[in-house]
Fold:
Amino acid sequence: MEFRDKTITIEENEFLIVPRGVEHRPVAIEEVWLMLFEPASTLNTGDTASDLTKKELDWI
Structure:
């Protein structure tokens, strides 16, 4: 996970909690599978609205 001031490497079976409001960018060298939990009100593009912003999210 890349942050403005550091990078944190997450290994298999580990997890990371990013506090609300902290800018971050998930990156991976290889394909990964992950489970993401966030409030329904969270935009998938952060505070930037663009063509990539999803208006309707899938519910599982």
Observations:
- The chain has a mean pLDDT of 85.
- The chain is about 0% helix and 5% strand.
- The chain has one domain: 1-43.
